[in-house]
Amino acid sequence: MTVTGTDITEDLIRDLLREQHPDLADRPLKLAALGWDNQVWRLGDDLAVRLPWATESADALLRKEHAWLPLLAPRLPLQVPVPQRLGEPSARFPRPWLVTTWVPGEPADRAPATRAAEAAVTLRSTAVRRARRSSAAGAATSSTRGPSRTSGVR
């Protein structure tokens, strides 16, 4: 059950898709992961549905992801789920939700990092610098996750 008191089920997701994205409603659907903020449901072979369920802060984060990940993803050295569509709150589910690309592979919390030090250096030297360099006016900020753009943290 979510913080809104709504059970997230296959039937609920199909109803949401029929209401807002009917061209996707008949694709195969199955639960893929229960994350800290979101549930992830696989939608066909190439998409996923992410619905906030455990924290109230997930709503704003989903909206930021929808706005910024399509711009940032091409600059990152690794594949990330890219939002394709935004689901708006409705009578059935009073929170925003996303349809994203599906990234194949094993979730990081289930697969041990190999060459962790090398991966950290690569991420630091490419992704973070690229993301900072591409920051634009109106870029997303967060008071609860990571430093602010003006904090001077490098």
Q: What does this entry look like structurally?
A:
The chain has three helices and five strands; from the N terminus they run αβββαββα. It is an alpha+beta fold. The protein has a five-stranded antiparallel β-sheet, with helices on both faces. A hairpin with a 3-residue loop joins β1 (29-34) and β2. The radius of gyration is 17 Å and the shape is globular.
Labels describing this entry:
single chain, 154 residues, alpha+beta, five-stranded antiparallel sheet, 5 strands, globular
In what range is the share of β-strand residues? 15-25%
Distance between the termini: 39 Å
* Count of individual helical segments: 3
Q: Approximately how much helix is present in the residues?
A: 25-40%
Radius of gyration: 17 Å
Outline the biggest β-sheet. 5 strands, antiparallel
Number of strands: 5
- The geometry reads as globular
Write down the secondary-structure element order: HEEEHEEH
Mean pLDDT: 83
Task: Point out poorly predicted stretches.
Answer: none
In short:
By secondary structure, the protein is an alpha+beta fold.
